[in-house]
Amino acid sequence: MSAVNGQVSKMDRAGHLRTNQTTLDQMWQRAKILHVADARLAVEAGGTKLRFLSASQVQSLIESGEYKLGEKYFLGLDEIDQEPYFAWNSSSVAPQGEKAPDGYLTLREIGGLISEFEMEISLHAVALANWHKSHTHCARCGAATSVAQGGAIRTCDKDQSEHYPRTDCAVIVLVRDKDDRILLGHQPVWPEGRFSCFAGFLEPGETFEQCVQREVLEESGVLVREIDYLGSQPWPFPASIMISFDAVTDAPEIARPDGQEITEVKWFSRAEVKAQSDAGTLLLPPTMSVARKMIDRWFASGAEGQGGAKLIGGETWR
Ligand SMILES: [Zn+2]
What sequence ranges are listed for the domain Nudix hydrolase (predicted)? Predict the structure, then answer.
């Protein structure tokens, strides 16, 4: 079976270029610039492609008084033609309220529609924007911090301490039984009929495998073994990476929800997942999520998934 998220990077992050401000300034002038505005991304009409700005277009948006000066983050060089890419993180001067301006959508909204390359750029840009937004002050002394090294870090304006972006680890688990059925759970905050894999944050001093066992036991009551790593996916909502595993339980009959985070658990065969998702009574997780990739991978590995049969639903977030 293929990995859940095994594609190699199409972007050279070119970390060695981050420390030279003159080089960064020169690259900015010819860069493809992704505008991140209030956690939304600039997109072309239709919302299936990112919209890149030039440095002069950014300048015009600032001079028009529409957008703040913002911050620039160097994302890297395109591996094919070495074009530099930047994110420009700048919110609008006038408060936007809940309604997004035309041409801007969230990563959740476009994640299932854009190309892998654009997804990689978007994940990097959004993760950086989220981190910078919440680290405007020094954790040591409370003074203001500033962007340094092309957005890779922030430094304290007072004591010059360096602050690095944080990513929170969360495990996500596809629990199977000996008959190769899967156990999915329903969270009370989800729409009726939505079921997904079990997930939770890694605690300090815990291995991924221990976290898998603890989270599955807490949420579904079953003990798992044969814990195998499947792949990982950045999930910057706001700052996670999902580390995915497959695990097996010998006692499927004892599964029960914890009643808090999970209010319902169900075992599904491939035929049941197919029939119920086709009928719309089972809502699968969105196609951009690692949970969905795990379910699709499991489905494709059985007889029902041979010959190109695919699970449907979840192309857009709901
Ligand atoms: Zn400080």
Answer: 165-290
Rounded to the nearest whole angstrom, what is the distance from the C-alpha of residue 71 to the centroid of ligand 1? Answer: 20
| Rounded distance between C-alpha atoms, residue 317 and residue 111, angstroms | 9
What spacing in Å lies between the alpha carbon of 138 and ligand 1's midpoint? 5
Q: Residue 6 pLDDT > 90, yes or no? A: no
* 316 C-alpha to ligand 1 centroid (Å): 42
Share of the chain above pLDDT 90, in %: 84
Domain spans of the chain, in order of start: 11-133, 135-166, 168-308
- pLDDT score recorded for residue 8: 81
Domains 11-133 and 168-308 alike in fold: yes
CATH number of 11-133: 3.90.79
Residue-wise pLDDT tens digits, 123-171: 999 999 999 999 999 999 999 999 999 999 999 999 999 999 999 999 9
For residue 144, the CA-to-ligand 1 centroid distance in Å is 7
Distance 146 CA to ligand 1 centre (A): 11
Least confident of 83-97, 210-224, 243-257, 270-284: 83-97
CATH superfamily of 168-308: Nucleoside Triphosphate Pyrophosphohydrolase (3.90.79.10)
